[in-house]
Amino acid sequence: MDAGDLVPDEVVIGMIREQLVDDAGRLQVDAFMLDGFPRSVAQADALGEMLAEVGAPLDAVISLSVPREDLIERLLSRGRGDDTRETIEHRMGVYEAQTAPLIDYYERLGLLRAVDGQGTMDSVHDAIVAHLPAR
Predict the structure, then answer these.
(1) 3 state SS of 24
(2) Exposed / middle / buried, residue 73 (Cβ in 10 Å: 0-12, 13-18, 19+)
(3) Exposed, middle or buried: residue 48 (CB in 10 Å: 0-12, 13-18, 19+)?
(4) What are phi and psi of 25, to 5 degrees?
(5) Of all helices (H) and strands (E), which one includes residue 36?
(6) pLDDT tens, 19-54?
(7) What whole-number distance in Å separates Cα of residue 62 and Cα of residue 60?
(8) Are 120 and 104 contacting, i.e. CB atoms less than 8 angstroms apart?
(9) Mean pLDDT throughout 61-65?
(10) Of 53, 88, 52, 55, whose CA–CA distance to 73 is shortest?
C-alpha cells in the first residue's frame, strides 16, 4: 500500500460488508456514501452483488474530474512522506489501469454522475449533493 498499490479486494470488500451488513444479512444503515470504493471492476461487481443480496442497489456514483497535473500538485502539496512524484505517478498508473474502467462500467449502468472537482470545496460539495437522491 505504501508503494501506491491497492489493498487486496477480499480485504476491502470484507471491511465494507462488515460496516454495511449485519449478521442477519440486512443493511445496517438507511443511507451511505462510499469514498474511494470500489477501485476496480471486481470490487464493483462484489459491491453490486452484496447490495443486491440486501435489496439496496446503488442510487448514484459520483466521478470527480480534475486534470492529472493538478492532482499531482495537490498530492505533492499535502506534505505526506509517501507523496513523492514517483509514488504519485505509480498511483496514477494503478488508477488508469484498475479504477478508470469504472467510469464506463457505471456509465453503462446509468449510475455515473460527473462533477468538476476543480471548484471550491463548497461548490464541489454542492455539485455532489445535487446528484444525490433526497432521503
Answers:
(1) coil
(2) exposed
(3) middle
(4) 80, 25
(5) none
(6) 999 999 999 998 899 998 999 999 999 999 999 999
(7) 6
(8) no
(9) 96
(10) 88
**Do residues 38 and 102 touch, judged by C-beta distance below 8 A?**
yes
- C-alpha span between 16 and 51 (Å, rounded): 11
pLDDT bin (cut points 50, 70, 90) of residue 3 is: low
Residue in the block written with cell 439496496: 56
Q: Which of 1, 2, 24, 23 is nearest to 11 (CA)?
A: 1
> Smallest Cα–Cα separation from 60: which of 135, 129, 131, 134?
131
Alpha-carbon distance values, 29 to 34, 83, 88, 112 (Å): 13, 34, 34, 22
